[in-house]
């Protein structure tokens, strides 16, 4: 039998999917902390992209009960720099979860999203995101002005499995990314995550149509985690990207 602590960690896979969809950068499978404790996560990332200068991203996230804030900084070798911040709230209901969030960044960017999980053992995923269309490096690598729909389950042993699509519904780019995400809790110390996705669309209505796929593998061990991702046609361009992420929870 899976113990109660492992059950809570497995169910957090649903929460992680919702945060990834909202652009909130929830890479690990940490359960929502108790209201009287602060928890932190430091996530540095290195991006190597074809025909583009390499980039670094640093993100610090703080959780306090149902509240979370984050501060991040992205730098692409003198070509583009952006500092960002955000806040989200996780509302728990008997039927699932509701997560509204807001984001702001330098260069005048503002954005927001609301995502929902409806159901528990078998659940639906729904969401919508909007921005003011200012320059913004898409750090979640999904369309920002979009809708989300999908479903998932945590009936599998020590696992959650979700299938969902994030699709542009505002800018006429045809952008859509379909994700299949599997979270597996090996034990209380070791966890794995696999995110397989396929995309199609254009950077803008006048650009060429592209199709690509991506694979991201994450290993989490005792508060430390590492991720390796290969993303073809990243952000709907003709370029391919490799991302290496390492992080620490404390």
Short description:
The protein is mainly beta. 8% of the residues lie in helices and 58% in strands.
Largest beta sheet: what is the strand line-up?
1-2-3-4-6-7-8-9-10-11-12-13-14-15
CATH architecture: Beta Barrel
Count of beta strands: 15
Task: Could you tell me the CATH topology label.
Answer: Porin
End-to-end CA span:
29 Å
Task: Output the keywords.
250 residues; mainly beta; Porin; 14-stranded antiparallel β-barrel; 1 helix; 8% helix
Write up what this structure looks like.
There is one protein chain. This protein has a single domain (4-249), classed as Beta Barrel (Porin). By secondary structure, it is mostly beta strands. The protein has one helix spanning 4-22, and strands spanning 38-49, 55-64, 67-76, 80-89, 91-93, 96-105, 109-119, 122-131, 146-153, 159-168, 176-185, 190-201, 210-221, 224-231, 241-249. It is built from one helix and 15 strands, in the order H-E-E-E-E-E-E-E-E-E-E-E-E-E-E-E.
């Amino acid at each position: 039998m899976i113990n109660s602590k492992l059950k809570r960690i497995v169910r957090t896979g649903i929460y992680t999917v919702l945060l990834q969809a909202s652009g909130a950068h929830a890479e690990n499978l940490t359960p929502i902390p108790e209201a009287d404790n602060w928890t932190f996560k430091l996530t540095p990332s290195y991006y190597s992209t074809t025909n583009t200068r390499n980039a670094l991203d640093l993100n610090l996230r703080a959780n306090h009960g149902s509240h979370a804030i984050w501060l991040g900084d992205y730098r692409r070798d003198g070509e583009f720099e952006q500092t960002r911040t955000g806040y989200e709230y996780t509302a728990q209901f008997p039927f699932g979860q509701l997560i509204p969030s807001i984001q702001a960044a330098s260069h005048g960017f503002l954005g927001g999203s609301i995502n929902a999980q409806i159901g528990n053992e078998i659940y639906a995923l729904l969401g919508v995101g909007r921005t003011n269309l200012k320059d913004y490096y898409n750090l979640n690598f999904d369309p920002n002005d979009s809708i989300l729909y999908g479903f998932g389950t945590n009936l599998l042993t020590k696992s959650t499995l979700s299938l969902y699509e994030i699709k542009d519904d505002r800018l006429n780019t045809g952008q859509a990314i379909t994700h299949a995400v599997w979270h597996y809790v090996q034990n209380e110390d070791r966890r794995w995550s696999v995110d397989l996705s396929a995309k199609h669309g254009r950077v803008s209505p006048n650009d060429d149509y592209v199709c690509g796929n991506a694979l991201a593998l994450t290993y989490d061990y005792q508060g430390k985690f590492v991720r390796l991702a290969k993303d073809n046609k990243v952000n709907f361009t003709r370029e391919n990207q490799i991302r290496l992420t390492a992080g620490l929870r404390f």
